[in-house]
Amino acid sequence: MRILLWHGYLLGGTGSNVYSRSLAREWSRAGHEVVLFCQERHPERYDIGAATLVRPEIGALLPVFVLDRYEGLEARLLQDLSREQLERYVALNAEALRRHLPADLIFANHVLPGAAVAAATGARFAVKAHGSELEYSMRGRPELEKWGREALARASAVFVGSAHIREVLEQVVGPQDRVFGVPPGVDVEAFAPRPREQALAALIEEARLDSINPVGAGNRRDERLPDPGNAERFGDFFSWPGATVVFVGKLLENKGVHLLLEALEGLDAKAVVVGFGDYRAELERIAGPNVLFTGALEHRHIVNLLPLADVAVTPSIFPEAFGMVAAEAAAAGVPPLVARHSGLAEIAEGLAREYPEGWRELTGFANGNAADLRSKLEALLRLSPPEREQLGQAARRAAVANWSWKTVAERLLRPFTI
Question: Which of 148, 176, 144, 141 is nearest to 160 (CA)?
């Protein structure tokens, strides 16, 4: 098949970015001709297989769901842009897609603006609904809900990553036909168990290769790059006694990292907090001396960091479409511990199907409950090394069975190949 894959954003950092580049890689590996449309200015950093990358000219404005900085663009919340500004953005992206038609399928990410972009081409298209546009930008805004509903009416298929997002989609835009549930995926080749000594050496070596991140305008560093000095800090941190807990994600209040920091108080454990965001300064203020903040890390770091962890925690207090980092930790043989709600609950259920009966409650904790998080962390950290290895093997089985990118990529094309 010839597939035009529209994303509109970057290829690193957040879930939909990883989703897009992973589909490009897997579909091209499977022999499909893939053209990936996004605003990534450094594609050499990412593996997109044999896909061709196109960066549409969109002018200065980029509609987003959470404010971040984008090189060369002015990011504005989608709901804060005028309809005229949004329609111009849609028209410019649709024109970029039309220049690469004919194609067997346009696959667009996000109900808005993705479905509107794809619908404007007049070609056959499918849409992947993510939680971000639905929860942060469209919900409760009738004009955007109506626009999304009208665009989806022309889609050949709509994909959701979890039962939770299926419910949210219906709440925001109303009942939809041709909705298929396919979870996001994990690179189970890259995320795999490995000996700790080997993982630490590789992590330190990757950190030594990081670009220099100097202080720039406004006395700030580029928050999308790793902190300077991580190689030395990793070596020091992992020489400390105690178990290791890892968090990877945006440093926003709704990601719940403050709950993790509270839960760690009094435990014989240390934590690595990976990510960037406007809540970082507050988290650093309340964190104990046993917490290492690394800034943003790339997959080349994280594939080596996760095998060094004893537990990976996803404590989000806001609904999540899926728990990508939790699934990646499982693939690396590290037991995830997730807030038991929304798409994260489906991660917990997938893990529980593989866990021995007595340990199934250790997959999740009550949303927003630091005491329950501490209790589950204590139970996981009390496991003996053989028990922890057994649990890690079960987590790995769950990841391979449920969330490998190869399986996900194949499932997304089934409605168009049968």
Answer: 176
Q: Give the CA count within 13 Å in the CB-facing half-sphere of 363.
A: 28
Q: How many CB atoms lie within 10 A of CB 362?
A: 22
How far, in Å, CA of 115 to CA of 409, rounded? 19
- The model's pLDDT over 270-325, given as tens digits with 9 standing for 90+, comes to 999 999 999 999 999 999 999 999 999 998 999 999 999 999 999 999 988 788 89
Instruction: Give the separation between CA 281 and CA 289, rounded to whole angstroms.
Output: 15
Query: What's the pLDDT tens digit per position in 242-280?
Result: 999 999 999 999 999 999 999 999 999 999 999 999 999
Q: Measure the CA–CA gap between 126 and 107, rounded to whole angstroms.
A: 5
Phi-psi region of 127 (alpha: psi -120 to 50; beta: other; left: phi over 0): beta
CA distances (Å), origin 24, targets 5, 47, 52: 7, 9, 9
DSSP state, residue 73: B
pLDDT score at 222: 84
Q: Which residues of 191-216 are buried (b: 16+ CB within 10 A; e: fewer)?
A: bbbbeeeebbebbbebbeebeebeee
Token digits of residue 20 = 């897009």
Q: Round to whole Å and give the CA distance between 133 and 8.
A: 13
Is there a contact between 14 and 37 (Cβ–Cβ < 8 Å)?
Answer: no
Is the N-terminal amide bond of 102 cis, ω within 30° of 0?
yes
Residue 105 to residue 100: CA distance in whole angstroms = 11
Phi-psi label, residue 266: left if phi above 0, alpha if psi -120 to 50, beta otherwise: left
Closest CA to 100 of 88, 118, 74: 118
Say which residue the tokens 């404005």 belong to: 61
